[in-house]
Design a protein that fits this description.
single chain; alpha+beta; Fructose-1,6-Bisphosphatase, Chain A, domain 1; 7-stranded mixed sheet; 5-stranded mixed sheet
């Protein structure tokens, strides 16, 4: 990886607030885990939201609005004001992995990504059950808690552990990821599907996964994780090798990226 540069003071203040809010929201999740929840749906019957999602988002959005009133906020449950002319834009998934959380499956997190003038600048993802705080600043590397992390060195797809997921429109969409899942299942060592895009990306960044792909996500699913992968020495793109976008995400350790893109090319 390239030499890391010092963190600018203005960016450091944003990072400090993002880390603080991720931990605070994570404490709400930890304290309410495996208790009774009010579970509603959003659009698709499999797209769940709980009172914990709303409580976490309210905590995060209210704090940002109070401390940084000129910043824009795009949050999954609709809190905050997203203003295109703002210098700073916070992209918040207050509880990534809601279906897991609602079922007591221990794989979920808080995800906070921050753009500066449209460029991904700060990424924070907090897993409250493992007490793992992933964070990155553009040009300053990626970390888990206080330790730097880096992607794996695996260069053979046949020896790779990959991850993916299925979007909430999987019951209706023709782009359902099933063909891609089957192709990678036949070529990689193994494929996991854990239900939290933000954590999947952090696991690529820290070498737990060698690669990850998913279709039809939303900006709050990936705003933090993409930067964390890139700052850990990995590569991100869409399925054809262009810039990564929520609708098509491929993230890898870099060494596997061409091989992963070749699988998509065969399916095109």
């Amino acid at each position: 990886m390239a030499a890391q540069k010092p963190i600018e003071r203005a960016v450091a203040r944003v990072l400090e607030l993002a880390r603080e809010l991720a931990r605070a929201a994570g404490e709400i999740q930890r304290s309410r885990f495996e208790t009774e929840h009010r579970i509603d749906t959003k659009g698709a019957p499999i797209n769940l939201v709980t009172e914990v999602d709303h409580a976490c988002e309210r905590l995060i959005v209210d704090a940002i609005a109070s401390e940084r009133p000129s910043d824009a906020i795009l949050a999954e449950e609709g809190g905050g004001a997203d203003r295109p002319d703002a210098e700073w834009r916070w992209i918040v998934d207050p509880l990534d992995g809601t279906t897991n959380y609602a079922h007591g499956y221990p794989c979920f997190c808080v995800s906070i990504g921050v753009e500066r003038r449209g460029v991904r600048t700060v990424g924070v993802v907090y897993d409250p059950l493992r007490d793992e705080l992933y964070w990155s600043v553009r040009g300053a590397g990626a970390h888990r808690n206080d330790e730097p992390v880096s992607v794996s060195k695996e260069s053979q797809l046949g020896k790779a552990l990959l991850a993916t997921g299925f979007a909430y429109d999987v019951h209706e969409s023709d782009r359902d990821n099933l063909a891609e899942f089957g192709a990678f299942l036949k070529t990689a060592r193994a494929v996991r599907r854990d239900g939290s895009a933000a954590l999947d990306l952090c696991y690529v960044a820290s070498g737990r996964f060698d690669g990850y792909w998913e279709l039809n996500l939303r900006p709050w699913d990936v705003a933090a994780g993409l930067l964390i992968v890139e700052e850990a020495g990995g590569r991100t793109s869409d399925c054809s090798g262009g810039p990564a976008a929520a609708e098509q995400i491929v993230a890898s350790n870099g060494a596997l990226h061409a091989a992963m893109l070749a699988v998509f090319a065969q399916l095109a």
